[in-house]
Amino acid sequence: MCPQDCRIARWRSAPSVPVGDTVGVTQRTAAPPQVGVGTAGATTARFVTGEAVSLDLPVARLGSRMLARAIDIVVQVGLFSLLSLTVTLLVMFAEGIGLLAVDAALLEGLAIVEMVAVVVGYPVAMETLTGGRTLGKLALGLRVVREDGGPIRLRQALTRSLVGAAVEWPGLLAPPLTWLAGLWTMAVSRQGKRLGDYAAGTVVVHQRTAGVWAWVVPMPPPLARWATTLDLAGLDDELALAVRQFLARYRELREPARRRLARALAGEVAAATTPPPPPGTPDVAYLAAVHAERHRRTLHRLAAVRARSAALWPELHRPWPTPPRSRPSVPAPTAPHPPGPRPSVEAPPLRSATPPTAPWS
Predict the structure, then answer these.
(1) Residue where one domain finishes, among candidates 156, 178, 206
(2) In the Cβ-directed half-sphere of 245, how many Cα atoms lie within 13 Å?
(3) How many C-beta atoms surround the C-beta of residue 117 within 10 A?
(4) Which domain holds residue 284?
């Protein structure tokens, strides 16, 4: 079993944060989110859970939330039409067999029930059953979470829906003014909150973020020959991902936690692979060698698959035609240089990109 520090490190460094894993976090022990700007320019909120785990989640702003709301409105209109048709047919059937006497009050009551079921029941049911997502949010990759990063429950979903139906959309209290108030609140809020989010203590975040190229850890030269003899059949994807994330964040971790994590991960990898590393091999160098060898073998398998597919379907792997090169323009004639030695012009030195250093160097 991996120690608690190792499990927390795996979870914290996951590329896609599973918000549902914070079920045990309570609102009383969590810190409020802090808003910042991510590397891609998107607004992010840092949530500190009750277990002192920091989560950086991109906050959904006005544009994406309005588009998700537009999709939900279309869905609600369709649900209301379907529900009205079903209730009308049932009422007509009950009146035809003499079980029900239809009057204006009954029709008005049924219409109110249908409206409440669609406007309040639809978002409450969807956000409770799917962990904070309606069909519109699901289409845009949004999710409603608590202010501590945990998943919402029935209480938060019901509060958001009731406040939204009363003062936002469709709005029972001065609809035009409440619409503007809701839009203004989302526009000026640093976390993109609407009135329902303030009442329920929730935040809408993005689940899908832009991927970035990760640095591939190089092979330690002293372990290159030994790594070719590794049996990696027992190394699963989860453990390999934990090793890669640990190596990528090696410089950010501090001692002695970094040493404990390296020792714990090396123990798990050694239990899943053979042969053992040479005596005296540092844990981080051992992890880097295993990760680099697994990456090399994966690239070889991918190249073999592409070669087989190219042999079966050559048109699929035909290179793209290169565009014709434009004819170089003739330089304009210049004045002849006066006789005598020409001044020497020193070219500026070329800058070479320095790759990141290996964790064991």
Answers:
(1) 206
(2) 19
(3) 15
(4) 221-315
